[in-house]
Fold these 2 entries.
Entry 1:
Amino acid sequence: MSADYFKFSQASRRDLLRAAMYGVSVSAGSALRMSLFGQAAAAVAAEAESNGKILVVLELSGGNDGLNTLIPYADDAYYKHRPNLGIPRKQVRAIDDHFGFSHGMAGFERLYKNGQLAIVHGCGYENPSFSHFTSMAYWQTAAPNSGEPYGWVGRLADAMAPGAPPNFLVDIDSHQSLAVRSKLHVPVVFDDPNRFTREVFAEERTVADAAVPAIKVDNPSQGYLLDIARSARSSSALVREAWAKYKSPVDYGLVSLDLPKVAALIQAGMPARLYYTSYRNNAFDTHVFQADVHQRLLTYASDAVAAFLADLERIGRADDVVVMIFSEFGRRVPENVNLGTDHGTANLMFVAGKQVKGGHYGKVPSLTDLDSGDNLIFTTDFRRVYATMISGWLGYRGTRELLHADFESFDMFRKREA
Amino acid sequence: MPDPERPVAISPAAPTAGPSAWQNDLAPIASADWNYNFAAHLLERAGFGGRPDEIHALAKLTPAQAIARMVRFEDADPTQLAPFDESGIRDPGLEPFPPSRPAVTDQAKETGHALGIDVKRAGNRRLQPIVNEFFYWLRASVLETHRVAYWWANRMLTSPRPLEEKMALFWHGHFASNEGKVRDYRKLLRQVELFQSQGTGNFRKLLLAVAQDPAMLVFLDAGVNIKGASNENFAREIMELFTMGVGHYTEKDIREAARAFTGWNCVDIKFVVNKDQHDDGEKTFLGKTGPFDGSDVINIILDQPATADFIAAKIYRFFVRQDPSPQLQATLGSKLRNANYELKPLLETIFLSRDFYSPASVGTAIKSPVELAVGTYHKLGLTAIPGVPDFNSVTGALGQQLLSPPTVAGWNAGQSWVTPGLLLERGNFARDVLFPTISFIPPDRYGSPDIRSVADRIRRGMDITEATKPDTKSGDLAESNMAADRDEEFNTRYGSYRGWQMAIERVKAIPRDTAHINLTKIITGAEIKTTSDAIDYLIGRFMRVPPGGEVRQKLIAFLDYELGTADLAAARTYMEDSLRLALHLIMSQPEYQLA
């Protein structure tokens, strides 16, 4: 292949990245790009950088049945809609005179009673999609019915840290989530920390450990792979060592949802402020015979989240971390004839953490005034909860630019950082 | 005759791609444009990569002949490809297989038997044999599915019709079903065979066959889509994912289509229409009204212009690149429509087009894990997929285990294939091939920690209750661990251990040969004389985009140092390990992921 195959491209995000990481000089094009982040924005960014809080987003993929997660046991309409799947009052873990958690959710019950769990009701958006993939993309981009190419967590990272320092954004999964797709950052994406290493023989090190060439290429896929290689080089040792040192007595239950890995990185002082993880593979898509399987899924999720908070307490970081939990939609209010539920609309979100002011947020949607498809009518735009995380928790005030509109935050945290 | 292993060098005189102006141009390339590198690109995309001898053979043809050889492959003899070798693990009584363990035990309590086994009349754990059988089938089907994946991967590696397998892989990602939900390797095997036999035929026929395919019927809950209580799962996905994409139908269309598909089901591995469960009332679907059934709905979907556009664009993205222009998509869609959904004319148009050989297309695809693994083995000259490393573990860890796509949407392709973690994992795969571990343990035969712990305690003579208590750590037990084993009619953990054991006994073992590699022979056969030529040869043989920066020079210096000479003749008797190290470093480059 001839040398001119590698023509110099226009300044790109890679230039910025390289500038940030390796001190390579930035071309005029990149400088222009920098002006997108004006002084004001940089100031908010610096403030957000400094508060040191960490956000962990946990996705429950497949569309969790919120009505059988937090059961409105005092509402007769619930039992009318769910003659077979309705969870009897006796089996519910009541948290007040109206609601109670599904039987296996001892962890969430405990968090709620300790005042560390916020329940946000009726979360959804206008013109809901009933497609997993579409609705999940809306939630992951925080931009329903638009073609937003970047994830909201990725955009948040860009806004909070436009210098794109390495290891700011972590996604623990087998593949990168759209939620963390970023213009400036290369998210640290790994699954098994023990495998997050280049296994080489001693004699190979001179070549294998060499810096990734700082070259400009025409081939966009090649450029992408070189970026990924740089990110891998800067993060893999950190992640591996963190995991090797991590030993926790806390029992995360049968499915830990990668939360012990997050705890390990936090304990090791990973500079990441944003973590993304998921209950994978559409697990919550319970169209048929859902009772047993759904209760099991909730038990696992509840165990893992409660254990994570206990683990954070153990390592002394409980005041610095919250977990935000969501699903791409709830399920149809009436059960289907297959002892399952079909795709629905509005749903619960949860925010858990020691600094969270526990309790109910948002208006509880009516179980009698449904839309024409027997679905809940949403009462809380889900982006209000995102805005709460962005400004209320992380201290970044530019939520309007990030979320493309104004969303009122909830007053959800005990301490407000100045 | 040239030595088939002798490469034709990638010389500067033979461009790897045409001019940029070729982008979006579907006009066929001229014979004068055709060269070794173009043929290599064709084999990379329409198959699983080519060895120099194969590339050379295609390069000698005209482009039209070369593409016809790939696409119109009926003359290529497939008889060397053995059918799947069944272990014979299916017990009578397993059909219909209940949806969950509680469903099995409920049935057993109610009727006195389940899964072809009677409840014990008296004594402890009267339902245990039934629970064992339940877990036996779950595990046996998983193990046999691993063997089906091996069988298929071997076809990808050795078939004289690589496009047949490549298209089957495409359809597997498009009409995705997985073992985790289907829980019956036989259905998945038949689905793969359907993709192999019809995947390059006619999309109309294929779509109808998929809608009646037992694996798909189970995967998308057809069994519970009945008159008066339709289930929308299949109706939604056939429009959203399989044919038109979102935006071309309404929620009402989905409900109406679901009614039309009511009664479509399978009994064991046969498609059936349960007439009494079919809703034969009027439906209004995509503007048409009638007492439609599933076939009618499929025909109406195929009449929509969006369908051909959607399918043609998805095929293009799979074979060429991720970002076809809207105009190009429309042109490809009309080609497919005008060919009445015959797929071969579309494939020929794509592979012959200037666009396919334009710089935007060449070397810009990121290999999927299956393409990476099969292609690596193919370029190494192997004739069987090695048993070590385990093919399913490797491709699973890299994000594309055959017969296990994560959801009905299949796999996210393109850049999604590679993350920082996965890029390192890909290099580690190469090392595991070139230097296989000597402490390999077959993952399919080695129980999970839970199972092993139960097995060890049982063998030490503990009773079942004691042996199946969860391992306790200090601190509170999680709710899920405390909830285990409360029912005394049976013990779930014991059942899963015993089922595992029964499955291993009956499922045939995957042969665990390591790869037989001889780089010395390959290099010597190609008459390579120096270390720099050897590095260039390995780069040329294994990569479509050479590594950037100083990597080539570093590799040459590395090989010089390892061999103690730049003269290969002097190092001939001891160069194998050093060549393998160099190849491992080459396969660890970001550019090795490009096709």
Entry 2:
Amino acid sequence: MGETKDRKTSSALSFESARKASASERAWEENTLRPALLKSPERAGNFTTVSGYPIRRLYTQADLADWDVGRDLGVPGSPPYTRGIHTTMYRRRLWTMRQFAGYGSAEDTNRRFRYLLSQGQTGLSVAFDLPTLMGYDSDHMLSEGEVGKCGVAISSLADMETLFEGIPLADVTTSMTINSPAAAIWAMYLAVAEKQGASWERISGTLQNDILKEYIAQKEYIFPPAPSIDLVTDTIEFASKHTPKFNPVSISGYHIREAGSTAIQELAFTLRDGIEYVESCLVRGMQVDQFAPRLSFFFNAHNDFFEEIAKYRAARRLWCRVMRERFGATSPRSWALRFHAQTAGCSLTAQQPYNNVVRTAMQALAAVLGGTQSLHTNSLDEAWALPTEAAATIALRTQQILAYESGVANTVDPLGGSYFVEALTNEVEQGARDYIARIDALGGMVAAIERGFPQREIADAAYRYQTALDRKEKIVVGVNDYSTSEKPIETLQINETVADRQAKRLRKLRAERSQEEVQRRLHALRKAIQLHENTMPSLLEAVKAYATLGEICDTLREVLGTYEESAVT
Amino acid sequence: MHEKKIRVLIAKPGLDGHDRGAKVIARALRDAGMEVIYTGLRQTPEMIASAALQEDVDVIGLSILSGAHNTLCPRLMQLLNANGMQDVTVLIGGIIPEGDIPALKQAGIAEVFLPGTSTQAIVDFIRQRVAAARQGV
């Protein structure tokens, strides 16, 4: 833990020692600051971000000695994109208000989708239940108690059709938070689009499909890393040929942060995962500019306002530099990092849940000032259950108030040029570079994961944070200070009728489809993998014959094997 | 007299993969001088009961954030009772609606720790409970 702490502050300290205050600043420090501190000492405790990163009292010109306006800041819509990836950003179009939603059955979630769209959200985002995420049908033994609890239960194309009933996929963009079974779920989505008459050339959305962060943080892995990366590469390859407006991956830091990482770790591990996928696609034989424009990213929007803004700006600048320098990409669309942000679920409290509306608003503001393309705001009941309709509505209204009442969308990158924000952007970028170099030295991200490196960094950071809370070095209002006695709030209840209904539906589905055809197509899927062919065509055939998700994933489990981690505590 | 160390099994029942809390608690309990075994992810109630028996633990800490607690926890309690492990203290941490807590306690869960609980509170609770159990209270 000591080594990690030293490394964490070493980049800060190196910036500190490189800092050359001007003569007038030094005079001010001597003649004004020193006496002021003697007369009125600063508050006790350290002034660090939620990640534990030290923040100076005052940032001045001296913090930007090595900073070059042309090279490091630039203009929005041009490399290095520090100020944003579009020339006019929100003046042209606001960020997409894309609320993550899903619970119970496909009908329940379809209703919530239509409600949110009617209330002004501008994109869909699907939350699947744990059985679906882990590639089990709703009636599998291991699904008991879990069906519809964390998201919507999807066991077949039939469920997917119900999910998007009355929602034209040609006109509405959809993000799907699914990882190990992503290719199969995407096949279902593409099949629904086809049935609706929505052209694959036109449909737009995002598949999360970022398996590396599963081993690192979210832990919804099924198969081992190498074949899993092959599946991801299959989808990127397929998308590059058939779905030009669809993002086949959402390379994510959100979950890494939720698992307890620092902001710098979040950025570093996310971009290094991106690097791993780019390498995999290049090995497959693709040209970088063929697929890189459709790589998208997903970051957390946590509590420390300025650390988050710096993180997003550093992300754009660093990725642009990586794509140009490391991979020689020549298309500006390959250089521009596009991202979705979600406010930090882990920062929200079970105690005094209405305080969470305030936290979410601040975090959303940071994401907007950081130039996000798309945003989800959490609901106040986050620490208790899936959101009620009322809580989900307040969360959406939060974005609308920011967009229409706060004025922050009137200008691009309002904080550009701030000594503090530019200095912090530099420091976050450098911190991320250091981690990326370490992972490179370990042999890449898969190698690093096998050695438990990112997992241990995250576990250490999570423990440091908890220790700080236990010692009241960090205060969480309502939790370790300012608590009151409270009455419980109303929360969303999901009961076992969803599971019962799903079981009935699956019995009917299995009885009505051609069992022979399903077996034939699953066999074809098996063959495709063995022959190192892209799995998307055979997945499409399988889902259209109403092979269930569980059957497809069992086939994949058979051929690819399953993964078990050696836990790092 | 050398007091026997408190042995704790930290377990993740069901499909839920969110292990931040489980790992933080495991480390905190170790730092407090307890012996901690972490089962890893995706344990069935059968696997947890079996591990608890084999490891001869005083305490089982279940981490569950998926909403499947009303199915998994009673099943575990049944298995523990069937195996004569009534003296094992079973705790839950995670996302549990207030309304579900009474039934869980009825089923034999000693305490449910909600988000925001300090690690010290958990350490203290375990020490008290195990001391009482060892005195046959």
